[in-house]
Amino acid sequence: MLEELKTLCEINGISGEEGAVAEYICSQLEGNAEYKIDNLGNIIAFKKGRQASGKKVMVSAHMDEVGMIVTYINPDGTLKISPVGGIDPRVVFGRKVEVGKNRICGVVGGKAVHNLSADERKKSVPFDSMTVDIGTDSREESLKLVSLGDSVCFDSRFARFGDGLVASKAIDDRAGCGIMLRLIREELEYDTYFTFVVQEEIGLRGATCAAYTVNPDYALVLESTTAADVPTASEEKKVCVLKGGPVVSFMDRHTIYDKELYSLAFKTAEELKIPCQTKTMVAGGNDAGAIHITRQGVKTAAISLPCRYLHSPYCVIAEEDLENTYLLVKNFIDRIHKR
Amino acid sequence: MIDTLEILSRLTSACGVAGEERQAAQTAADLLKEYGSVEISPVSGSVFCRVGSFDKTKPTLLLDAHIDEIGLIVTYITDEGFLKVSQCGGVDSRVLQAQMVTVYGREKLTGIVASTPPHLEKDNTKAVSVEDIFIDVGMSKEQAQQLISPGDRVVIETGFNKLCGTRVTSKALDNRAGAAVVLKTLELIKDRQTAFNVCAMLSSQEETGERGAKTGAYAVNADMAIVIDVSFAKTHGETDEDCGTLGKGPMIGIAPSLSSRMSQRLIEIAKEKDIPYQVEVMSGTTGTNADAIGVSRGGVMTVTVSVPLKHMHTPAEIVDVADIENSAALIAEFLESAGDINA
User: Fold this and answer.
1) CB contact, 8 Å: B279 with chain A?
2) Which chain B residues are Cβ-neighbours of A78 within 8 angstroms?
3) I need a labelling partner for A225 at 20 to 30 A (CA). Which of A174, A265, B126, B182 fits?
4) Position B342 confidence tier, pLDDT thresholds 50, 70, 90
């Protein structure tokens, strides 16, 4: 599963440019599920189970990752960028990036720290003062390699480290995509819909349409959520912790989750004897925000992987949480069908 | 002779945080062997390479480039198993959050600099300082203590990459670019007559206060020195007034603390041999090893030759390989004919 997560994370796909991710996913769906791609680029897959429950259950994860987009090319050849999705500018400055489909290597930089005033040194570099340098000296030179609107992705290494941890860009939400692919390759008890959706990071847009099309009775969103279990956060602000198992939310900034499904998730984890936790803050949001208010409304749950340093070049998760999230999701889907 | 890109790639991938230069020094020493007798000082960690046999009638010239790089040093392991660090040299702390680092503990370990999650961060306009950060090594305190000790060095290792044309990016181009100039220079003067006895020195601990240069210059006891380092190339929004320019050739230093005769001679040679160059005027000392070397023993005539570099002290430094090669060409010409500089 880790091997496929690495493959998925290394593909570049900011919101609106999910094509390469979709291409890989479709290659894996071939022969394992029926699928179609809708007008926005969502993949809507149907996996036949051993039986039909009479309930339509939709499991969803988003394909897009946060990144940047080229908005302007300066006369000196450097590129101006804007964030796509919520990114703290402090995790962008000084990084290696890949620009466009040809993955042109560049670095994000600005004035050397030595040449800053005392005041400037205390401030982070905002996006409008950053430029990407690809080694050119003129706009003409840059235009041969880069176009306005090209995506800019973190060039970060996928690495296992410490005691069973994994670091990479784009774990949010390729981890969710990876779990769904694993489920689709296995035999399932019940007929189930799986949607790989676009444009979550810029406002839950893909899920809005995918949920309309599928028109499910129940939905389960697979996500990665902020684990703030770092020394700077007080106990109640940790939200969730690594190695604490999958995270089931009761409420976030976009959704108040279905109470029965919430309890059912915990009950399922208990029976499986795997750890499970909830979010201790009402923070963040995910595609459930769009899905649960689709048509007349959909009973929705979200199961998330606890993830440190979300929306940065190095999201960090624990391998055991990934495995436990998969286990919970697999069994939880059956429980929903059996209700 | 291997090409400049290969030299740079090998030198930059070696770890050489100030005070712990062994790996970088050894890499450089292996490359220097071809050109003379090489020795790594057991005290300072600096690398010395004497070229050929010294002729007592000739003046001795010291070719210096510092081999150390900026980095972090572990000071404490928290109860949660995170590392606290201090800086070795002037780290640009604006680049630290959510960086992958290598911790040189009992073994090489990967860590991630913890960033404050957005929901807990009210103000992302503030730069963090080195003292604020925690390094996540994914272990409990007990596990971490088995492998990591206070004093271990930490480096942001991002790899060596080619950019467009002859530009490259990496960490530690400050000053492995200078070390590469030294190597290329020695290659150019190989089997050629020089006006000087040449001793190359890849000195330790420049970033923490030019300490390797101080003891090294004493040891070499040279008459003259050329200090090769990097200097600021303009980035977007900066002008020619502020900085040098990438790709426009070596930056020849002129300063009250430098030998104006050496500066002028370098400029003369550059014009004569059609080597592109830039002039870097500093109004006092230079912020390089030249400051320490110039006042070694009874005094050393010293000049700086700097390779223009963007994004200094970040893991995303950029140099132009052509500037390195032109720096070496300029210095090699100087070594061959000192002109009237000894008169």
Assistant:
1) no
2) 235-236
3) B126
4) low
